[in-house]
């Protein structure tokens, strides 16, 4: 083997292999290969915050294969993602392979195209230790907060909880918005619309504005009727007619945050879905031989830079002039400037080649891939196009001292709007207004008063939360999705009609954090920490000093909190229902378990009654199943065998039961793939009605478990989680990982 290229993703490896040819072997590390241990803090605080890295459990085969390939290679190129995380992975790989950082051949690709990949291989650089140190500082900072705060929450709130530096801030944002909604008191206001007739018998709709002193807000019906009474019998006089040509300029190409916001608003995609699909488009899609095989379709999707290369700008100009005409290209090439704190290592998100028009390659894309690619394509091209031109008209009229306004527009030239348009780009009413002259008199055709009430602030959704995080400087492009995923998986926040609503657990945890660790959940402090990490990345600050400055105050707050707060001080409120427990008469409360929310009797453990709930919070009515014929005959009496419902699930029984008690098990699938071979995991019954789980391929695959395997991965190490038998506890069985998560099952709850 002459040359070895190591990337993170197997799909990216396949794409790059197609570009480099036979002299290159391209392999994937499948993400990180080394990390801090799960069982301990893994940071020597007293010794300059030195991290203690270990090989990640489960990556042994990958590491062994990488070392084997490296021994055969004449050159090794580390081609992990071109951000802090990717740089850190490259450094860990170099350490494992015995390569000095300054001797390493580090290559990065802003886009996975043949030219960019080959250029990158020709121009390797050393590992950027500033980037690595920035990532390490963040990792150590988050590890200290998580491992020091989580035990405090176990002691004071509930075992199995976890805390995080940025996730706690994000939860606070959602909790505080909920408080705003709860405290909101609607205020009444009125609008007043007049339909007036011109001298040419044409209609114009005028909105009440105010008087010569300025705008007047109509707060109630009395004020509205007073205006009507003073104007209804008088003619209107035109005081001003203004015509203008209004320019609308396009938005810049996408950065990570704007892509997530727009894809949520226009496509309804949640953050994790957006980034997963964007990753697929970046790493490469098989487009058939006629399109050169597998191609990366967009540039790197984790960026907050609005910059585009001269080559891309030139290609956009040629495409626009050819397809739409010269009028659709501006007099001067557009250049967009990012905010001062933006990282400019990457370009904005754009198509890698304008040869791959969405319509031409649609058949090779999944529905999600096509929708997102089309959105990125349109936004990029629109950003390079000419302004839209609107012919606008604004008319002012007066009546008995009051002022009224009408406005409208028509599109003179579509410009960039031929491709892309914001939902709310103008406050004008679409459509032309009839021609009128100043001092012209108009008569009233209709008066329409309408009552309104102010609305409470809306709950945050994926788009608005990411916008808030971006505006406040909390998190970075690579962390937005992780933040949302974490607060949902930890149970601090739930989705309700696509919006985020804090749980009782999220509210009480936020309250404790604000009282005991105000700095951790402070917006400005969190944003400053991000700036400090940027300074480390730029070589202007030392990671140890950043950590020391933070830890000195945090350690004191933690010590005080541990001494002053106990579990007796904390009470998590429960949500009462109108469902009456038929066993004891108490009103049932809503609890959460591994299958979602359910109603439970608050008198547990005296009364253990529970009821499953549907999505609307109503009790699920269980229907009795009729025995279903199997087509088999009972080997004992010759009668038909049927499927019956039992306490432990369906089973096969003789239709002559109870005269004939012949029964057989049904190996029920639980809908979770085997972690060893990927087969189906089946629920089986042992002696004395014991329940266990095993792979359908047993004994070829020897996977089995007394605990319930879950279709849920450990947030710390990524391995399968299990529900402990007869305990309200979810655990990770990775010996290097001590992750535990307390839950409440339908059979056993802590009330």
Structure write-up:
The structure is a single chain. The protein is of the alpha+beta class and 751 residues long. It is 31% helix and 25% strand. The protein is built from 17 helices and 35 strands. It has a 6-stranded antiparallel β-barrel with strand order 9-10-16-15-12-17. A 4-stranded parallel sheet has the order 2-1-7-8, sandwiched between helices. Helix 3 crosses helix 5 and helix 5 (129-156) packs antiparallel against helix 16 (523-537). The longest helix is centred in the first third of the chain and has 28 residues, at 129-156. The chain is globular and about 95 Å long. The two termini are 63 Å apart.
Decide which structural class fits the backbone. alpha+beta
Q: How would you state the average pLDDT, rounded?
A: 88
> Sheet with the most strands?
6 strands, antiparallel, barrel
What is the CA-based Rg, rounded?
A: 32 Å
Distance, first to last CA: 63 Å
Explain briefly what this protein structure is.
By secondary structure, the protein is of the alpha+beta class. The chain is 31% helix and 25% strand. A hairpin with an 8-residue loop joins β30 and β31.
Can you tag this structure with a few keywords?
single chain; 751 residues; alpha+beta; 6-stranded antiparallel β-barrel; disordered C terminus
Walk me through the topology.
Blueprint: E1 3-7, H1 10-20, E2 24-28, E3 34-35, E4 43-44, E5 50-51, E6 54-55, H2 60-72, E7 75-78, H3 84-96, E8 105-106, H4 114-122, H5 129-156, H6 165-183, E9 188-197, E10 203-211, E11 214-215, H7 221-231, E12 236-248, H8 256-267, H9 271-283, E13 285-286, E14 294-295, H10 310-323, H11 358-361, H12 367-383, E15 388-399, E16 402-413, E17 441-453, H13 462-472, H14 480-489, E18 493-496, E19 499-502, H15 504-516, H16 523-537, H17 543-564, E20 575-580, E21 587-593, E22 596-600, E23 610-612, E24 628-633, E25 640-646, E26 649-654, E27 663-665, E28 668-673, E29 680-685, E30 691-695, E31 704-705, E32 708-713, E33 720-723, E34 729-732, E35 740-742
Parallel strand pairs: 1-2, 1-7, 7-8
Antiparallel strand pairs: 3-6, 4-5, 9-10, 9-17, 10-11, 10-16, 12-15, 12-17, 13-14, 15-16, 18-19, 20-21, 21-22, 22-23, 24-25, 25-26, 26-27, 28-29, 29-30, 30-31, 32-33, 33-34, 34-35
